[in-house]
Amino acid sequence: MMDVQVSFLDQLFSEGVLYDSGVDGLYARSGEFEEVISRFETFALSYGKDEISEAMVFPPGMTMQNFETSGYMKSFPQLAGTVHAFCGNDHDHMGLLQCIAAGDDWSKHQKPTQVALTPAACYPLYPILSRRGPLGEDGAYVALQSYCFRHEPSRDPARMQMFRMREYVRAGSAEQTMAFRETWKKRGEDMMKRLELPHHVDVANDPFFGRAGKIMASGQREQELKFEMLVPITSEENPTACMSFNYHMDNFGKVWDIRQADGAPAHTACVGFGLERLALALFRHHGFDTARWPEGVRSALWG
């Protein structure tokens, strides 16, 4: 499997689709790669465009307070990243420069800031919804996009450390959010057919950490809270999750104090599109020359 991963990554480098940075999972992207992502976003936003109540784009960082409130460190400490910065005086600066000159670890001169790297595109949305007070009868239906960070360096090009997620998020009643998720599972299938990508949907779980995480992962699968759209990219045997369809029940409603119109904790659900992964899937199955992609695919993306 690793040989296949390295082979595809090397092809992406040699074809000028991605550019090596020297750090696994951190790559520069070509203009053509970015155009495919832009075309896919337009394609994805053509679904459900009349249903959304608003759209937002988030920066790659979120407040440390909101990051801690999310509970991410309880479940995924192995993936988290935080922003540190130099906060010292002239004397401290001299010490930092001496460390660098000596080839020593200079990170001890850095201190935590109030910023964490965003691990999931929907996380910054929930405190915004909470501050607005109770939702209306129709709830909220938000299209959003964000760069995300997860610390899992890999030679698998589909497992980047910094990547973008396009999401639709639904907040409201259990019935509204469950109907939203089921609708998007069907739409996801239609999207993959139009893009002529091999795919299947399967129940899944998040990568919860540690012994307790195994119990949480098992519960998530048993309750069928998470489904993924799997597409072969670097492996036929272990296809990559390119979309996810998630029902959070009222967990985030309770954590963030998001209320339905009747005062009950809101239920939430989201559908996420891994933009880099979907672009990679298209290059993997249709070749590196986008002008020679199948007519149906080009029609879906270029119109």
UniProtKB/TrEMBL annotation:
SUPFAM superfamilies: Class II aaRS and biotin synthetases. It comes from the Bacteria. InterPro entries: aa-tRNA-synth_II/BPL/LPL. NCBIfam families: PRK07080.1 (NF005479). This is Amino acid--[acyl-carrier-protein] ligase.
